[in-house]
Specification:
Length: 37
């Protein structure tokens, strides 16, 4: 179980970084409006 716990924490941290990245992307206006629909 020790290895599973460490792996889960690593995956959680990686997902947390992705979530923060996407939150910042959503809050920032894209100067080129590439993501505007």
């Amino acid at each position: 179980m020790g290895k599973d716990n460490v792996t889960s924490e690593e995956i959680f941290k990686q997902n947390e970084r992705r979530i923060h990245y996407h939150i910042h992307r959503l809050n920032i206006r894209d100067p080129h409006q590439l993501y505007d629909s």
